[in-house]
Amino acid sequence: MKKTKNIIWIMAFILVIVLIGVVAFGYYKKATMEVKNPIATMEIENFGTVKIELYPEIAPETVANFVTLANRGFYDGLTFHRIVKDFMIQGGDKAGTGSGSATIADLKEEGADTEYTIKGEFIANGVDNKLKFEEGVIGMARNDYTQYASSLKEESYNSGSSQFFIMTKENTSLNGNYTSFGKVIEGMDVIHQIEQVEVKAADNSQESGNTEVSTPVNPVKITSIKVDTNGVDYGLPKTLTPFDYMTWMYKQYGLDPSTLTTNEE
Question: Please, are residues 125 and 158 in contact by the beta-carbon 8 Å criterion?
Answer without folding.
Answer: yes
